[in-house]
């Protein structure tokens, strides 16, 4: 069965109803933003106030357009939407996106408008996205619809992460991570869900061959059975679903009513929901960071993790975080301990977490040699590399070594920059340039690494059995 969403992502013709020559208003920005994209089809403008906008003819009604209209994008005052919808139905439009706000989120009158549209489309071959929708974007086809004042689709990076968000602000906050290196496939935000709903978008991404990781930002929840059936379907396809739930307190329930016009008596009890295919996170930082790990590291070998550092206090702190998050830190082999002792000329007992001491300040080759010993030893699957603070050129040197190891050894490396002040350094720029996942929040780094390992089928309990983790997926 073909998804309703296909009508919205592959139109050949689009009518922008309510287009404006005032490019500072949403109705004007929708047109400009659409023209910025890679949309190859024909665009028609509809607004009885104008004869033309930006040199393009402006029709008084969609019924005046002789060509077939695949997608109508409506951005007119809410009270005028029903009559515009009637014209779209008469025209035979198969997909309508309503960006206009002022519906059930605005109380009784708005709810009546929404109900009238729902009655109007019932039994008809038409799909409606919205109302009160901020838009959508297909990174696969490099086009989309948005009234965002900051919208540069030519710079968007295509990838395999799909996002569905309730509300445009959080959605935009997440897709801005595209600039860090995360590639997206689609972004959907269906607004008040009068027809196309959250589950429709989820099912589309599960079936989409371009999407491998799915991000959800949910503030209201309906069709529970279908939702969890879809989560299981995603799990069977090995597509992780990462959830950031909002509206989880009694205080936020009223805000949900005003935001989406949805009536909820109590928050959904996400804390009791457990499914191996659903990964729950607590912040935007976590949902973005975890998506980044899934996209960048397609393959992994196990849970055997080492903390690599030249600062004792920092390494101990990270060991605590790893223990609390069930990340296995096996001891170094005697062979590896002897190598470190011979190299650094200090007879201390080397352990995991590793403290190379400040001896490496004076000879940076010691730093690279030790890191290479770790990566070549095959004793560890994942390396947490700490950048406690800037020391001359040490961080830049270490960053270059990290990039070499990732290419040559296929290790998972988690760079963590701990400094709370000086982060404008070349080492970070080198890692950013290669779009390698990096972290400036150590709590986030360890939490998402733990969740990543758990989903992939690796856990501390497995690792404790024989010093090497094994996958159960």
Automatic annotation (TrEMBL):
Q: Which domain of life is it from?
A: Bacteria
GO MF: ATP binding; ligase activity
Q: Which residues form the CoA-binding domain?
A: 8-103
Q: Which UniProt keywords apply?
A: ATP-binding, Ligase, Nucleotide-binding
Protein name (record): CoA-binding protein
């Amino acid at each position: 069965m073909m998804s309703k969403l296909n009508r919205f992502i592959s139109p050949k013709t689009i009518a922008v109803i309510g287009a404006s020559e005032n490019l500072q208003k949403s109705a004007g920005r929708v047109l400009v933003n659409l023209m910025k994209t890679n949309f190859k089809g024909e665009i028609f403008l509809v607004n009885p106030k104008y004869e033309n906008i930006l040199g393009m003819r402006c029709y008084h009604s969609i019924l005046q357009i002789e060509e077939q209209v695949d997608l109508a994008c409506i951005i007119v005052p809410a009270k005028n939407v029903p009559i515009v919808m009637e014209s779209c139905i008469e025209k035979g439009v198969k997909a309508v996106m309503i960006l206009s706000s002022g519906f059930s989120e605005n109380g009784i009158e708005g709810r009546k408008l929404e109900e009238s549209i729902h009655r109007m489309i019932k039994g008809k071959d038409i799909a409606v996205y919205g109302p009160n929708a901020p838009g959508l974007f297909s990174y696969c086809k490099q086009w989309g619809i948005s009234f965002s004042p900051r919208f540069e689709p030519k710079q968007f990076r295509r990838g395999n992460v799909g996002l569905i968000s309730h509300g445009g602000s959080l959605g935009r906050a997440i897709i801005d991570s595209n600039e860090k290196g995360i590639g997206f496939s689609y972004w959907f935000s269906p607004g008040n869900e009068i027809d196309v709903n959250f589950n429709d978008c989820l099912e589309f991404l599960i079936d989409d061959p371009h999407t491998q990781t799915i991000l959800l930002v949910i503030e209201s929840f309906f069709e529970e059975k279908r939702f969890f059936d879809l989560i299981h379907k995603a799990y069977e396809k090995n597509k992780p679903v990462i959830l950031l739930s909002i509206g989880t307190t009694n205080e936020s329930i009223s805000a949900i009513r005003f935001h989406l016009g949805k009536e909820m008596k109590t928050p959904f009890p996400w804390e009791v929901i457990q499914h191996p295919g659903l990964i729950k996170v607590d912040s935007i930082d976590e949902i973005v960071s975890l998506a980044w790990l899934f996209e960048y590291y397609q393959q992994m070998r196990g849970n055997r993790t080492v903390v690599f550092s030249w600062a004792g206090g920092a390494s101990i702190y990270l060991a605590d975080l790893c223990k609390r998050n069930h990340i296995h830190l096996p001891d170094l082999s005697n062979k590896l301990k002897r190598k470190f002792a011979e190299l650094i000329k200090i007879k201390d007992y080397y352990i995991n977490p590793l403290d190379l001491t400040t001896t490496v300040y004076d000879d940076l080759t010691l730093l690279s040699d030790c890191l290479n010993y770790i990566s070549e030893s095959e004793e560890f699957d994942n390396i947490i590399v700490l950048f406690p603070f800037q020391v001359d050129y040490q961080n830049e040197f270490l960053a270059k070594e990290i990039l070499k190891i990732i290419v040559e050894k296929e290790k998972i490396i988690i760079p963590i920059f701990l400094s709370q002040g000086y982060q404008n350094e070349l080492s970070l720029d080198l890692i950013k340039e290669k779009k390698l996942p990096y972290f400036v929040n150590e709590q986030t780094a360890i939490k998402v690494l733990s969740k990543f390992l758990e989903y992939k089928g690796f856990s501390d309990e497995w690792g404790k059995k024989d010093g090497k983790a094994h996958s159960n997926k």
